[in-house]
Amino acid sequence: MFSKKTPAEEDTMDWGTNDVMAPEAVPAAEAPAANNIYQPAAGCVISAGTVFTGNIEANDNVVLEGRMTGDMASSGRVRVSGKLQGNTKAVSFILDKGEVTGDVEAEESITVEPGSVLTGNITAESARINGTIQGNLKITGQLTLCSKAVLNGDLVAGSVIMEAGCVVKGHFQVG
Fold first, then answer.
1. Do residues 62 and 43 make contact, with C-beta atoms less than 8 angstroms apart?
2. How far apart are CA 4 and CA 6, in angstroms?
3. Is 107 left (phi over 0), alpha (psi -120 to 50) or beta?
4. What is the 3-state secondary structure of 139-169?
5. Residue 163 CA to chain centroid, in angstroms?
6. pTM passes above 0.90
7. How many CA atoms lie within 13 A of 128 on its CB side?
């Protein structure tokens, strides 16, 4: 079927006019930061319009703009602006106008931006919530509930900052 090419043969291959681009012609991905939200240099990108089913284990950052069903584990940062059905573990996590159904665990921080919905439990060192959470929060350090935050669940946190306008329906344990 396919024959293995030597490195010398690969260097001289005729790439022709097929849909495959020569390695030197592949453009570098450059995405400007939107709304001053940290956008990690992605090691794995699931772009808008893409549907992925399965689990991801990444040793780099992950950006999900499409749809994914499965669990995600990253030794880097994760940003979701698409839809995820599954649990996530990462160094830090940003939900930016996306939807997540599943638990999220971050070694450092979790940020939920306005227009985002997370149905599941959150565990992290710190969190800044400005979207909707249906689940429980366990934050070892500081939790900030911004003006557009809606929390339907219990929270345990080292400290809590609540801006005017946030809504919380649940039990508190602070300190």
1. yes
2. 7
3. alpha
4. EEEEEEECCCCEEECCEEEEEEEECCCCEEE
5. 25
6. no
7. 11
Apex CA 101: angle with CA 97 and CA 102, to 5°? 120
CA 155, distance to chain mean position in Å, is 22
Q: Which helix (H) or strand (E) holds 75?
A: none
Burial bucket for residue 118 (CB in 10 Å: 0-12, 13-18, 19+): buried
Pairing of strands 109-112, 92-95: parallel
**Average pLDDT of the chain, as a whole number:** 83
Amino acid at 58: A
Three-class SS of residue 23? helix
User: Which pairs count as long-range contacts for 66-75, CB under 8 Å and 24+ apart, including other chains?
Assistant: 71/102, 74/44
Amino acid at 46: I
pLDDT tens sequence across 118-160: 999 999 999 999 999 999 999 999 999 999 999 999 999 999 9
pLDDT digits (tens, 9 = 90+) for 43-77: 899 999 999 999 999 999 999 999 999 999 999 99
Q: What is the side-by-side order of every strand in the sheet holding 83-85? A: 51-53, 67-69, 83-85, 99-101, 117-119, 132-134, 150-152, 167-169
Would you list the domain boundaries of the chain?
Answer: 38-174
Say how many C-beta atoms besides its own lie within 10 A of residue 130's C-beta.
20
Assess contact for 93 and 73: CB atoms under 8 A.
no
